[in-house]
């Protein structure tokens, strides 16, 4: 045991698992499992969100045969611990950042007489518990709990010191992990909203070469309708426009180095098919030069295909403007560029019925012309939700 606690490679490996924990499909399971091996534990539990009256909490656990921790782990599934025993637990609201043992809080003879011991600890053969409460960077409390069985000794001063060394790393790893998972969730929502509008996004590195592109941009390049991908670079079939694109990209890439106002340029790209021109916007990306790594995106190109119809939610149009389903459907069909006659035909209603719906739409939305209605629908949140 002492060799493991004093072994730097072991500690380094444990920290690696801790900082990578949020990216695991079962968050922090590798870290909690490694703790069991290093400290000879029965179970190890990371309580990311302690239970309260309105929330049964969120726990990640490892140990034993993996069946008992599963019952303890997910507060959303009405776990035994969070729903029945948490309020009886002597190790709650501990001094922040301090390792506390069960015997520090309650004498052993009192503990074995308590309902908490009889109903929870004894049935799960838990004899010793070490706990540590910490705060993340938002000031939210989370907890680490380590247990041993009746045949194992209590925690030593050296083991408590080892846990104490983990405290700042736990704070940082949990804070960063939660923040990155939240940012990733937000990014996915933004990406889905952008994809609704069929906007292609291309990120360029400091050489003007393509780092990554979204599916909408990939589709546009695959169509080879005036825009091509050649050796990781964007190429316009029109020679003069291609030179203009290169100039715009160079301006975007050089703006940060020269510390000038970041320019935004736009180009209309004719298409070989004769369809409406692609619309390109070239924007520099703000980069902190003191921490810029190789492969950092330095500029972004946005590509809009005007021919691509926007997927507008009927239900959201109904909620936004108080329209009936028939009225919302007509408004969306009109927003695709159809005439009243074409819209009535596609919806299977008479022109008089369609006109009646349109009058009701005008009254509810406050617009007075069909063109204004089209603009309203296409610019509404229903087109990006």
From TrEMBL:
Known Gene3D superfamilies for this protein?
A: Winged helix-like DNA-binding domain superfamily/Winged helix DNA-binding domain
**What InterPro entries does UniProt report for this protein, alphabetically?**
Sig_transdc_resp-reg_C-effctor, Tscrpt_reg_LuxR_C, WH-like_DNA-bd_sf
Residue ranges of every copy of the HTH luxR-type domain listed in the record: 320-377
Q: What is this protein called?
A: Helix-turn-helix transcriptional regulator
Q: Which organism is it from?
A: Microbulbifer taiwanensis
Q: Highest lineage ranks of the organism?
A: Bacteria, Pseudomonadati, Pseudomonadota, Gammaproteobacteria, Cellvibrionales
């Amino acid at each position: 045991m002492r060799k493991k606690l004093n072994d730097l490679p072991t500690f380094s490996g444990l920290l690696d698992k801790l900082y990578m924990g949020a990216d695991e499909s079962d968050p922090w399971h590798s870290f909690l499992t490694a703790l069991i091996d290093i400290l000879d534990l029965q179970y190890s539990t990371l309580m990311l969100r302690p239970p309260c009256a309105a929330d049964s909490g969120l726990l990640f656990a490892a140990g034993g045969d993996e069946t008992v921790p599963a019952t303890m782990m997910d507060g959303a599934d009405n776990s035994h611990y969070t729903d029945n025993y948490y309020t009886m637990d002597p190790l709650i609201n501990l001094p922040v950042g301090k390792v506390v043992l069960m015997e520090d809080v309650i004498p052993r003879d009192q503990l074995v007489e308590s309902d908490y011991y009889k109903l929870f600890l004894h049935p799960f053969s838990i004899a010793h518990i070490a706990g540590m409460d910490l705060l993340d960077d938002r000031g939210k409390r989370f907890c680490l709990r380590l247990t041993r069985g009746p045949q194992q000794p209590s925690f030593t001063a050296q083991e408590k010191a080892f846990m104490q060394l983990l405290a700042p790393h736990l704070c940082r790893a949990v804070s960063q992990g939660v923040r990155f998972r939240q940012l990733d969730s937000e990014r996915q929502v933004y990406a889905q909203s952008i994809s609704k509008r069929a906007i292609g996004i291309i990120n360029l590195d400091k050489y003007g070469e393509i780092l990554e592109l979204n599916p909408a941009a990939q589709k546009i390049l695959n169509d080879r309708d005036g825009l091509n991908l050649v050796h990781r670079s964007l190429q316009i079939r029109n020679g003069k426009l291609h030179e203009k694109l290169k100039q715009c990209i160079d301006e975007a890439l050089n703006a940060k180095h020269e510390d000038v106002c970041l320019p935004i340029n736009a180009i209309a790209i004719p298409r070989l098919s004769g369809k409406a021109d692609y619309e390109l916007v070239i924007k520099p990306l703000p980069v902190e030069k003191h921490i810029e790594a190789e492969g950092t995106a330095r500029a972004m190109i946005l590509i809009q295909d005007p021919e691509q119809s926007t997927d507008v939610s009927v239900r959201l149009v109904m909620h936004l403007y108080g329209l009936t389903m028939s009225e919302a459907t007509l408004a969306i069909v009109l927003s695709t560029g159809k005439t009243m006659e074409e819209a009535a035909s596609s919806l299977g209603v008479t022109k008089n019925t369609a006109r009646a719906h349109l009058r009701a739409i005008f009254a509810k939305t406050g617009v007075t012309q069909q063109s204004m209605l089209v603009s309203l629908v296409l610019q509404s949140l229903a087109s990006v939700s």
